[in-house]
Amino acid sequence: PEMTPSLARLVLQKQNANTGEIKELLPFKWFTVAQCWRFETCQRGRKREHYQWNMDIVGVKGIRAELELLCAVATLFRQLGVGSDIVGIKVNSRKLLSSILVRYGVPDKSFAPACVIIDKLDKIGEEEVKRQLLEIDVAEEAASGILKVLSPPEGECDTIEKFTARVGEYADPAAMDEMSELFALAESYGFKDYLQFDASVVRGLAYYTGIVFEAFDRRGILRAICGGGRYDGLMTTYNSPVEVPCVGFGFGDCVIMDLLEELNLVPQNKRTT
Q1: Residue 183: C-alpha distances to residues 86, 92, 161, 178 (Å)
Q2: What is the pLDDT of residues 154-169, one digit of tens each?
Q3: 176: which residues sit within 8 A by CB, 6+ positions away?
Q4: 226, 251 contact by CB (below 8 A)
Q5: How far apart are CA 108 and CA 195, in angstroms?
Q6: Phi, psi of 170, rounded to the nearest 5 degrees
Q7: For residue 147, which of 186, 121, 112 has the smallest C-alpha distance?
Q8: Residue 8's closest CA among 238, 177, 200?
C-alpha cells in the first residue's frame, strides 16, 4: 500500500538527472489520504483494503521536519478526544541503534536482519529475540549486551537520560543530541506528553536512516496505530545521483477506528425522516 514510491517519482521529476539539484522551492510538503490494498491475512487492525493518511516533507535535513509530523499526529489524537494517557508515540533513532550494534561487533551482513528482530522485542520478548539474533551469527555475549542496553528496568518507561546512563560513551553523541533537541522542541510545542523514548523501536523497513516513530495503544491491546521516520537514502534507489532529505509517516484507518469504537468516540449518525 506504500505511497512513498509515488512521492519518490514525483520528486525525481523535479530533479536534474545529472546534478541532483531539485528545481522547485524546498521544503516540499505533501499529504494524501489514499485507498490502499495489500495481500494480507485479514486480522484485527489489518485488512486487505483500507484508507491511509500519509504526510511527507522533502528537503529538510534537521529534526524540525520530524517535529512537524509528530505534532500533526498528536494534534489529530487531541482533536479526536484521544489523550496521551491512552496513546503514545514511541521515538528512537536508527543512528543510535547502529552505534550500539557496531559497539557489540554485529557484522555488517547481520545489521538489517538484526534491526527487524529487535523491532519485535515488545511482541515476542527478550528470550525469543536473543534466540533469533544468535541464528543470524550475533555472538551470545553481544546479544545479551544489546538486550540489556535496549531494555529499561522492568516496569519502568525509558527516557533519554536512563538510556544515556546505560550506554555511556558508546551511543552516537550527535544522535543523542538530536533526540534531546527533539523532545525539548516537542515540549515547547506542547505535545511532549505524547512522546516516549524507546530504544527498541526500529520500524521494519530497511530504508529508514534516522529518527523513527510509532504511535501505540498504552493499554497494550491494539497493534501499532501509525508509524514513520526519516529516509534520506531512498531517492538513490530510484537513481537519484544524490541523497535527498525526506521524512514521513503512514496512518491507516483500521486501528484508530477500533480504538475510537472501544472508547465510544465514534459519532452515531442520526437517521432523518
Answers
A1: 19, 11, 12, 9
A2: 767 888 888 888 887 7
A3: 96, 160, 164
A4: yes
A5: 31
A6: -85, -15
A7: 121
A8: 238
Residue with the three cell numbers 536482519: 113
Residue 27 preceded by cis peptide, ω within 30: yes
Question: Cell 496521551 maps to which residue?
Answer: 84
Regarding pTM above 0.85, the answer is yes
Instruction: List the chain residues with pLDDT less than 50.
Output: 1
Which cell is 1 given?
A: 500500500
pLDDT score at 12: 87
Q: Indicate left, alpha or beta for 223 from its phi (over 0: left) and psi (-120 to 50: alpha).
A: beta
CA angle 247, 209, 72 (to 5 degrees): 25
**How is residue 193 annotated by DSSP?**
G
Each residue of 2-37: pLDDT tens digit? 677 888 888 888 888 888 888 887 899 999 998 877
Q: How many CB atoms lie within 10 A of CB 80?
A: 15
Determine the residue type at 52: Q
Give phi and psi for 30, each to the nearest 5: -145, 155
CB contact at 8 A, 17 and 241 = yes
